[in-house]
Specification:
This protein is of the alpha/beta class and about 260 residues long. Helices cover about 40% and strands about 15% of the residues. The strands form 2 sheets. Strands 4-5-6-7-8 form a 5-stranded parallel sheet. A 3-stranded parallel sheet has the order 1-2-3. The structure holds zinc ion.
């Protein structure tokens, strides 16, 4: 296999991989997934995430942010930690950040404040943002319409919206759509949406350990499984694996300003 893919969203620093993390990294490389970007969740995940990146500095890259489901009463402290990390270490994006109204709406105001504050951090540090949107496109669009500048770049990770939302993301913000295993699910409407947009606007990701693609659906996801998602997206666009690899890798390198390929 000679693909060169980049998993732009993977949580392989979590406990779920404590027993076999080394194999996971090796499997990914063998399957052509040569680079992996790690999104942070909150102050409890930073150490494990950074340790993994330091172990594989040419293959695994950290992003820094406060996940919307971790926004609670103490979110000001959490944001200070994120800000301090951004001042002290090299990161490739501010993420994952955004608004999640699926699990709990208690902290919706705080979620919006935290999202805006982290957009400001991204602009200050000249980094792209990785957006987590769940039952919250309208709220997120509202923030972006208020905050967006032409220098703000980013991706809607785990995109599952409709065509209208996809087109707004691409036209109004010039953001990418992050596509993962959901696109392989039987009843997914995503293939129909993707047929109407360009491969130039797509990034591939796993969101491991969640959302494993068919035929691994329901299992713990890992970066090497991104191959199945890539194959499905190639089918949808009617292109071969070589082209999908080249295009999505180029998109990821551009957005995150990653170093070029090393073996
Ligand atoms: Zn995530």
């Amino acid at each position: 296999m000679t693909h060169y893919l980049i998993d732009t969203h993977s949580h392989i620093y979590l406990d779920a991989f404590d027993k076999d993390r080394k194999d996971i990294v090796f499997n990914a490389h063998k399957a052509g997934v040569k680079k992996i970007l790690l999104p942070n969740i909150d102050s409890t995940t930073i150490d494990d995430m950074m340790a993994l990146c330091q172990k594989y500095p040419h293959h695994i890259f950290p992003m820094m942010g406060l996940h919307p489901t971790s926004v609670e009463d103490d979110f000001e402290n959490e944001l200070n930690t994120i800000e301090r990390q951004l001042e002290q270490n090299k990161f490739y994006a501010v993420g994952e950040i955004g608004i999640d109204l699926y699990w709990d709406k208690t902290f919706i105001d705080e979620q919006i404040i935290a999202f805006e504050r982290q957009i400001d951090m991204a602009i200050k540090h000249q980094l792209p943002i990785v957006i987590h949107a769940r039952d919250s496109f309208d709220e997120i669009f509202e923030v972006l319409d208020r905050k967006h500048t032409h220098e703000l770049k980013g991706v809607f990770h785990s995109f599952t919206g409709n065509l209208e939302q996809a087109q707004k993301i691409i036209k109004d913000y010039q953001f990418y759509l992050g596509i993962n295993g959901i696109v392989t699910f039987k009843n997914s409407h995503l293939p129909e949406v993707l047929k109407n947009i360009s491969i130039d606007n797509i990034l591939l990701e796993t969101d491991a350990p969640y959302l494993a693609p068919e035929p691994k659906r329901g299992r713990r996801n890992e970066s090497s499984y991104m191959f199945y998602t890539a194959r499905k997206v190639a089918d949808i666009f009617g292109i071969d694996m070589k082209t999908i690899s080249e295009k999505t890798t180029e998109n990821a390198i551009n957005l995150f300003n990653l170093p070029q390929h090393e073996n």
